């Protein structure tokens, strides 16, 4: 009788352990992306996102992060890797597949973006309203944008004519067209290839935000950085964090809720805030290196805007309904930029005088 009881207890313990083990590993999500783990989005967005999902699922969702294309393929293949189930979650640059996201591409047009946070929030609402059909093959977690794009070059750019003939890396079809209109020679490259291209003289400079200069060590490879006056940056690029659709739909409702609670506008803003923080760090690093940082005055900025206007006109003319998309994008960017400015003003006015002065 005693032996029978022990055997029953052991059997029960084994079943309980096996059940607990299964429950603890309901699903493992493999995140795949192109940049090293210390880069901004991997380090400040994807890793915290994964930890939040693991914790809120009670350990039933496990996250494995594969940076720098460790699971194979090239950066332009990431979206299809999520679609096809090669991996479970990806982060990618949408402009790496020209023509595939024509509505979302609206946000890449020159001189419409403001800052990383406001533009990311605007992009998230814009896609939810206008462009979810472009993501029908995946479960979209969020979209976002980077901060103001600017020039990082071996030779200084202080006026429009300085760009003539320069070989400048561009990250998307729209940006390459912009470079052409500005008189440069565009060279299309995924961002991981920029450092080598600069060091080998394949390109004379690159268009990226300050944030991206950090993992690529761009401030060590070039000594000139050129930005623009006014509220609008030269350009931004659009990014997506996407999940395999079958994997998401196969989750039980409570685990779907964990994913949903960490998606959408919350995740878009998180990414925009990370980009904005590291933009400041990237610019400071270039300053400390003694690099030449140029902000073109209003008159010279206007010359760039005038040259870039043809990109916008041609983009609008290329498809029905594009003017409405552009108008909506501008309105959403203006809305979120104003809201965020009001939030900052409110925080500053609520501070004691000494704190407000130090700001």
Plain-language structure description:
The chain has 359 residues and is α/β, with parallel strands linked by helices. It has a domain at 26-147 and 236-277: Bacterial extracellular solute-binding protein, family 7 (D-Maltodextrin-Binding Protein, domain 2, 3-Layer(aba) Sandwich), CATH 3.40.190.170. The chain has 14 helices and 11 strands. Helix 4 runs antiparallel to helix 11 (265-288) and helix 7 (210-216) packs across helix 11. Mean pLDDT is 90; it is low at 1-24 and 346-359.
Question: How does the SSE layout of this entry go?
Answer:
Layout: H1 2-24, E1 27-32, H2 40-56, E2 61-66, H3 78-84, E3 89-93, H4 116-131, E4 138-145, E5 150-153, E6 167-170, H5 173-181, E7 185-188, H6 194-199, E8 205-208, H7 210-216, H8 218-221, E9 224-228, E10 238-244, H9 245-249, H10 253-261, H11 265-288, E11 292-296, H12 298-317, H13 322-350, H14 353-358
Parallel strand pairs: 1-2, 1-3, 6-7, 6-8, 9-11
Antiparallel strand pairs: 3-10, 4-10, 5-8, 5-9
Helix pairs in contact: 2-11, 4-11, 4-13, 5-12, 7-11
Summarize the structure.
By secondary structure, this protein is α/β, with parallel strands linked by helices. It contains 14 helices and 11 strands.
Give the distance, in angstroms, between the N- and C-terminal Cα atoms. 77 Å
CATH homologous superfamily caption of the domain at 26-147 and 236-277? Bacterial extracellular solute-binding protein, family 7
**Low-confidence sequence ranges:** 1-24, 346-359
Task: Summarize model confidence as the mean pLDDT.
Answer: 90
Number of strands: 11
**What class do helices, strands and sheet pairing give?**
alpha/beta
Question: Can you summarize the main beta sheet?
Answer: 6 strands, mixed
CATH topology of the domain at 26-147 and 236-277: D-Maltodextrin-Binding Protein, domain 2
Shape: globular
CATH architecture of the domain at 26-147 and 236-277, by name, is: 3-Layer(aba) Sandwich
